[in-house]
Design goal:
heterodimer, A: 533 residues, mainly alpha, 0% strand, globular, B: 256 residues, alpha/beta, Rossmann fold, 6-stranded mixed beta sheet, 25% strand, ABC-2 type transport system ATP-binding protein (chain B), nucleotide-binding (chain B)
Chain lengths: 533, 256
């Protein structure tokens, strides 16, 4: 079974590349990136072996971080590995256990898992001197990678039913906000208690990381280095048991998810009619119709809700990153604020035709002029702004308080709000253009709204996003120049100017995309309605 | 009948190395009920997509009610209604919301849309389901709500790709009745189907497609030459019934 499924994945990857030059280029680049990650990771983890206690702490943290990253990144980047749709195997006479094992083995095939395994192998060179210690270390790496792969698949699966429900999303968003606040508080406590002592912070973090299964496995390698093979074996056994438990949980959840593929939790529940808000905001009927549709989709479609969940997670990560590095100084975090605002827009409307999938034909059937396409793009952007603006304001407020404490100066507020919202609107101008020029199909997976863009396409999408980020950052140069020198007098004009400038760019981008998009619509439809294997 | 509702000349669609449509000429007179038949893979869906401006032809021209589909999309798109194969709709809207949305997209006034939507929902027997998400509809209901959306702006020409596929007899009867009423007023319907009896009963003209070409076209009586359409179709496309020949000895004798 394992062999068959692995071969199937290889042939799917190959089929995704055949006759697809962009995909092939993307794959070659991902090979290159994988090589860089593997080589530099190997070197860094090896060097940790030379730095005594500090290096040992770093190694334990690294093992835990790798697993944590594998768990979170699929949700953050919409890249849950679903090259093999588990639903396709539901009819085969194979029990869920072996099936889950085969799928797990298949998910180890790919550039990222191989690159990270090689990177961790550096720890063997750095910490293991005897053959027995090498063996312990190798087992620790296997356990860590298995845990990583499992977390990468179990979290999207666990979130999916929550996203299908109506109220679940609100609960989850609330939970994420709460978790972020908690991490911020914790961070604050660590920074204030041991601000200057890097060794102490590392030791504290390693202490926490050491209690995770990958951290436990990493500690086993340290025990083996010191000759304590009994304790090493015990630690490995515990870590392996944790992996087995997660694997069992995943197999069970997978079995349940596949036998219960309800598309909507609503079932036959009635939804309220009367679409749109025509007349409200003085919108044209066409734009109002699109706004009505998009608002309902944000509430009702798991993939859109997954987008909002991703945004919240991103906010949490950014907030916890920003507080320690910017240390209250103006302008230091501007690039992170710009990135956060831009990613929010790209998550919401970066691939708006792909989100519509083959239903796009109905838009195409009634769209013949740039003005009509502009209504479509404008409607989607308005809804994105309606959702993004209050959330980003909340984010900017939390950031200001997090960075400067309760008594923040007006210029800190202005820098935070202006840069964040300005970049968000700038990216709302860039998003329609990449939606028109680089659309991609999304797989239709009832059980996994985080499923990525299909084999061989991931790197192309990443490159597109990267190009969009570079464009937004270039457009945001005024923010970089001005944010650091704000004072009480320039604070308000800066915030206002950034928002107006962003909105102007958004309008320009929407108009340009509408003009460029109309003649391309048949090709866009063909691209986004192609089924993703 | 005055002039062509749809006129296609030399329509070709090439996908990389395969030719899906290999040069099609079609003339559909205004007010006709036109059937497009052919085996799977004959190019029916590709042809309909090119006729309606959803798929760009590799070569050839299409005009609808005198306007070129690809040169003057604004005029043609306002005058046609489309129900594509598989009916992928914005299915997280309720049936009623979908119609109101489509009306807004077509630039119709809110009151007119609301009134038309209610009438269509009633005629197509969808009133009870009007407030449920289209996602939860059966195939027949999806086809019906798709038809309602295609008719909402009162198009001059209606294109339907397999409107009866997977539809139960009751819904099929409803769809048929609406289509007949629509053509009786002088509008044009073009639809593709596998159901020969239905095509024979409904259509006054038919075109038979095989391997991307029109192999027979004209009034039903000309094409069938007195035979049932089903027989005429099989003889035109050349039935390939391998199942009656050798092989498959292992099938059905025992398990395993």
């Amino acid at each position: 079974m394992v062999g068959i499924v692995c071969r199937l994945k290889l042939s799917l990857i190959a089929a995704g590349l055949r006759g697809n030059p962009a995909g092939t280029v993307g794959f070659v680049i991902s090979l290159f990136v994988g090589f860089v990650v593997a080589a530099s990771g190997f070197f860094v983890t090896m060097r940790m072996g030379l730095a005594f206690e500090f290096g040992a702490h770093l190694m334990v943290i690294t093992f835990a971080l790798v697993a944590l990253g594998w768990g979170i990144v699929p949700i953050l980047a919409f890249r849950s590995d679903e090259t093999l749709d588990p639903a396709r195997f539901a009819l085969l006479p194979v029990p869920p256990g072996p099936m889950a094992g085969a799928l797990l083995a298949a998910s180890a095939i790919g550039v990222p898992p191989i690159a990270f395994t090689i990177a961790l192998t550096g720890a063997l060179a750095g910490f293991a001197a005897t053959p027995a210690a090498v063996l312990v270390g190798a087992l620790a790496i296997v356990i860590t990678m298995l845990m990583s792969l499992l977390l990468g698949r179990i979290l999207p699966l666990a979130l999916a039913p929550v996203l299908r429900g109506r109220r679940g999303t609100d609960v989850m968003i609330g939970g994420l906000v709460g978790a972020t606040a908690l991490v911020l508080l914790l961070e604050w406590a660590i920074i204030t208690s041991a601000a200057s002592d890097v060794d102490a912070i590392t030791a504290a973090l390693a202490g926490a990381a050491g209690w995770t299964p990958p951290g436990f496995a990493a500690l086993a390698l340290l025990d083996a280095r010191d000759g304590d093979f009994g304790i090493a074996a015990l630690r490995l056994a515990v870590a392996a048991a944790a992996v087995a438990a997660v694997w069992w949980l995943w197999a069970r959840m997978l079995g349940r998810a596949l036998a219960d593929l309800r598309v909507s939790e609503a079932g036959d529940m009635k939804v309220r009619g009367r679409l749109g808000a025509p007349g409200l905001f003085g919108l044209a009927p066409r734009t109002a119709a699109v706004v009505g549709r998009e608002l309902r989709y944000q509430r009702r479609e798991p993939r859109r809700k997954a987008g909002i969940a991703t945004m919240m997670l991103l906010f949490g990560v950014v907030l916890t990153m920003l507080a320690p590095i910017s240390s209250g100084e103006l302008g230091v975090g501007t690039s992170i604020l710009v990135t956060n605002g831009a990613l929010t827009a790209l998550t919401l409307v970066g691939n708006q035709f792909g989100l519509q999938g083959s239903a796009l034909w109905s838009v195409l059937a009634s769209t013949a002029s740039p003005r009509e396409l502009r209504s479509e793009l404008l409607g989607a952007s308005l809804v994105a702004a309606l959702i993004g603006t209050p959330l980003l304001l909340l984010f900017a407020a939390l950031n200001t308080v997090g960075v400067a404490g309760g008594a923040a100066e007006p210029e800190v507020w202005a820098a935070s709000i202006g840069s964040t919202l300005g970049a968000f609107y700038l990216a709302l101008g860039v998003s329609p253009l990449i939606s028109v020029y680089f659309p991609y199909a999304l797989p239709d997976r009832g059980h996994n709204p985080f499923a990525g863009p299909g084999p061989g396409r991931g790197m192309v999408v990443t490159l597109t996003m990267l190009a969009a980020m570079i464009t937004v950052n270039a457009l945001a140069i005024p923010f970089y120049l001005l944010a650091a020198d704000l004072d009480a007098w320039t604070a308000a004009p800066y915030a206002l100017g950034a928002v107006v400038y962003g909105l102007a760019v958004a309008w320009t981008g929407i108009s340009l995309a509408a003009r460029a998009g109309v003649p391309r619509l048949p090709e866009i439809l063909a691209t986004v309605s192609r089924p993703v294997t | 009948m005055n002039g062509s509702a749809v006129r296609a000349r030399g329509l070709v669609k090439q996908f990389k190395r395969t030719t899906a449509v290999a040069g099609i000429d079609l003339d559909v007179p205004t007010g006709s009920f036109f059937g497009l038949v052919g085996p799977n893979g004959a190019g029916k869906t590709t042809t309909l997509s090119m006729l309606t401006g959803l798929l760009r032809p590799s070569a050839g021209e299409v005009s609808i009610l005198g306007a070129d589909v690809w040169a003057d999309p604004v005029r043609t798109k306002a005058r046609i209604g489309v129900l594509p194969e598989g009916v992928r709709l914005f299915d997280r809207l309720s049936g009623r919301e979908l119609l109101l949305y489509t009306g807004g997209l077509r630039g119709l006034g809110a009151d007119a849309v609301a009134q038309r939507a209610e009438e269509l929902l009633w005629v197509l027997d969808l009133r009870e389901a009007a407030d449920r998400m289209v996602l939860d509809y059966s195939t027949g209901m999806r086809k019906k709500i798709g038809l309602a959306a295609a008719l909402l702006h009162n198009p001059g020409v209606l294109f339907l790709d397999e409107p009866f596929e997977g539809v139960d007899p009751v819904s099929a009867g409803t769809i048929r009745a609406v289509m007949e009423r629509y053509t009786a007023s002088g509008s044009t319907v073009i639809f593709s189907s596998h159901v020969m009896e239905l095509v024979e009963r409904l259509c006054d003209r038919v075109a038979v497609l095989d391997r991307g070409r029109v192999v027979a076209a004209g009034e039903i009586a000309e094409v069938t030459d007195g035979r049932p359409l089903h027989e005429a179709f099989l003889s035109i496309v050349g039935a390939r019934a391998r199942a009656q020949e050798g092989g498959l000895e292992w099938l059905g004798s025992s398990a395993g």
